[in-house]
Design brief:
The chain is mainly β. It has a single domain, classed as Beta Barrel (Porin), CATH 2.40.160.20. It has one helix and eight strands, in the order H-E-E-E-E-E-E-E-E. The protein has an eight-stranded antiparallel β-barrel with strand order 1-2-3-4-5-6-7-8.
């Protein structure tokens, strides 16, 4: 499954390089993972772990401030490693300020019996330079065993 996601992402990137409306880049940062949490409720004492993530993204500019931005990220939290492939609908709120929303496809290497999970992501991105941005994203797990995650990171357009 992880190889299928990688192949799809590479094919999308390869066929889009010749277009003027496409940016390719890398991103990474820290994530806070909230375990034993019901949906949208952190409770009184959620178990929280700090991890890392890194990967690539492709930003397809569509029209009138709308973009499609798939990403392929490798994430680690303690002993748990997984691939994350969000597919964002990106909207330009302002020239440098963007809203990201969409599904997130996740493949867990060691954590679950059912290794494939789907989440909902919501994020904000701010361009601090023409190629450099800061972002914060929140991933909401739909199942009890699928943790919610808060991401803080930086992206660089190549």
């Amino acid at each position: 499954m992880k190889y299928y996601l990688l192949i799809i992402f590479i094919l999308i990137s390869f066929f889009s390089v010749g277009q003027n409306q496409v940016d390719i880049g890398v991103r990474g940062g820290l994530n806070l993972t909230f375990f034993k949490v019901s949906e949208a409720n952190f409770g009184t004492n959620p178990e929280t772990d700090v991890g890392f993530y890194g990967g690539i993204f492709v930003d397809f500019k569509i029209d009138n401030g709308f973009h499609i931005q798939p990403e392929l990220l490798y994430k680690g939290v303690n002993d748990f490693k997984f691939l994350n492939a969000p597919i964002y609908l990106k909207y330009d709120i302002d020239t440098n300020f963007h809203l990201l929303v969409g599904p997130s496809l996740n493949y867990f290497f060691d954590f679950f019996v059912n290794k494939f999970k789907v989440r909902a992501d919501l994020g904000l991105e701010y361009d601090i330079a023409s190629r450099l941005n800061l972002h914060v994203k929140y991933a909401l797990g739909f199942e009890e065993l699928s943790p919610n995650i808060l991401f803080f990171g930086v992206g660089y357009r190549l």
